[in-house]
Amino acid sequence: MNDSVQGNVAADRRDLVILGGGLVGMTLALAAARHGMSSHVVERADPADLTADGVDGRASAISAASWNLFTNIGLAEALAPLGCPIDSIAVTDGMKPGRIDFKPDAGDGSLGMMFANRDIRLALFEAARNQPLIAWHTQADVVKRERDAHGVAATLADGRVLTGSLMVGAEGRRSPTRDEEGIGLVAWDYHHHAIVTALAHEKPHDGVAWEIFYSAGPFALLPLRDLPDGRHRSALVWTVPAKDGPGVMALSDAAFLAEVAKRMDGLYGGLELIAQRMCYPLTYQNATRIVGDRLALVGDAAHGMHPIAGQGLNLGLRDVGALVEVLIEGMRLGLEPGDAQLLTRYERWRALDTFTVMSVMDGIVRLFGVPGRTASAVRRIGMGAVQRMPGLKRFFMNEARGTSGRLPQLLQAQ
């Protein structure tokens, strides 16, 4: 690379140039700002489109550790009234006997919180608007990325040049920043699609997250806060074989709800569809490295996993906590955010945690995907054994809370 970045240095040079202003990218900008680091955040979409009512029926399970992060960057007050505590998790093989119930002891708190993605975005975007250390560039396309010994620069389609010390790729699974750097992926296709929407239902969910495993794919019901009119509400993530995805999406609302009701076995009584259906192909992908010269990857740009157990966003938020902590410690020693030593520390910190979580989730998907009555019986025997082992259940609950392993300071209770 030539010295063009040095020539592009403008008065508004910032510590970070974050490409991608979604849930992980904007959380990173806010977490960095809390520690005095400035950033440019570039987002292709219009925030109004991302937060329009009814557009996105997706929801995210926010682990206890991730909730600490939101609390520590000042979002708890805005988000707390919108979240639904996950008081327990029920895991079952096709609603047959032998399920596992993960329920914390009294005083241990919930396993996490469920939020509609729209509500998280609204809180993040409002905080970003009021944060002078964040320069937010929306409906903006990056046409050129440059990195050299002097810094980084992102040129936008309108000619603006955004400069900084470190470039962060946070654009999601199809990250052009990652691809342009030539970073490879360990990847495979699950040959399944996730059908995602939100349901209103007759009976209360009592804060239970259901993970119902069928041989065709997992069927998850995730508790959401009741609607203002008192209707009970849950998010649905229904995994179907890829060949069936278009057909399920083409069903009428009534036919779709009838298929959903069959798999719920009367769990919540009458159902109503309250968000549009969305369909996503399911793949596994893990970047072969997550740093380069003055470059770091976070969130789905670094790793994309099956939505089982809802750990994808939490893994990205751990990236945020680790990267911010490494950068803060380096800057205290007089290093700039793009220093190679700091990026090496970030990559080493995240490598084992990411690999472990993704491998476990992939193993569970494959285990419960084995068809046949014999396989189902063996799974249920194993689940029954786990149900009778408090120590093992506690281990799994700590994983769900995100409190295992070395946690960044931002993800610890202060």
Fold and architecture overview:
With about 425 residues, this protein is of the alpha+beta class. The chain has a single domain (about 5-185, about 285-405), classed as FAD/NAD(P)-binding domain. It contains 13 helices and 20 strands. Strands 5, 6, 12, 13, 14, 15, 16, 17 and 20 form a 9-stranded mixed sheet that branches. Strands 1, 2, 8, 9, 10, 11, 18 and 19 form an 8-stranded mixed sheet that branches.
Keywords, separated by commas or semicolons:
414 residues, flavoprotein, globular, 20 strands, single chain, 29% strand, eight-stranded mixed β-sheet, FAD/NAD(P)-binding domain
Summarize the structure.
By secondary structure, the chain is of the alpha+beta class.
Total beta strands:
20
Mean pLDDT: 88
Per DSSP, the total helix count is: 13
Q: How is the main sheet built?
A: 9 strands, mixed
Helix fraction by DSSP (H/I, runs of at least 4): 25-40%
Low-confidence stretches: none
CATH topology: FAD/NAD(P)-binding domain
Strand content: 25-35%
**What is the CATH architecture assignment?**
3-Layer(bba) Sandwich
CATH H-level homologous superfamily name: FAD/NAD(P)-binding domain
Q: Estimate nothing, just give the exact number of structural domains.
A: 1
The top-level CATH class is Alpha Beta
Structural class: alpha+beta
Distance between the termini: 43 Å
Can you tell me the overall shape?
Answer: globular
Rg value = 22 Å
